[in-house]
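[step 3/7] fold_predict: job queued, chain A
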Amino acid sequence: MAPVVRQRDTDMEPRVRILCSLSIFLVAGMMGLLTDGIAQEEPITEQRYEREELGVNRYTAPSIERIFQQLDDLRPLPFEQLQRELPKASPASREQKGLIFGGLVADGFLIVEAERKNAVDNLGRVLMREARGLGVDDRVTRHSASLTDLARRGHWPAVRKELIATQADVEQALIELHDQKMAHLISLGGWLRGLEISAGAIELDFSPQRAKVLTWSITSLEN
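[step 4/7] structure written:
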């Protein structure tokens, strides 16, 4: 019997690419609004992380919980193809530092989903370096040892919770320093990297059903 060759849905795949491009364009456009934001000192929660005056809302930057859910729906993830080399040096721009920190947290999501113990230590070191540049390294220090220990023991659900808590703690520290703009840059950076990972996973193993994960995430925001 001849092998069955899976045909790609030629209509769906371009839609996925367009959706990814539009999402990135939308977030990039919102970045311009961040410079005019007015700092507020409310803690960031699942409901409060949105700030319309800063261009951050559930459409431009879904919460990190949603990013994890999206990656859950795409498992198993091809770690070797989706991983990237972590930055070896910290950028001079403070805004870039915020975006990079958020992206590193999303890299942590990939590590957790793929359950790669040996990648946690290096991620922790880079997170500490970037947190030091943002002046919030004390907040990361309190989580880094726990992240490493839990990963070594293979307690991945706990690592996941600790990683989410790390980002929330850093963002809260920045708010307390009257730097809420930077807190939301971290959120945006995390979502951009999360989108890149999700889109990459779909491209590597395309199917209409997997592609719907991206369209579902946008549709669910409207409900």
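[step 5/7] annotate
The chain is about 65% helix and 0% strand.
The mean pLDDT is 76.
exit 0
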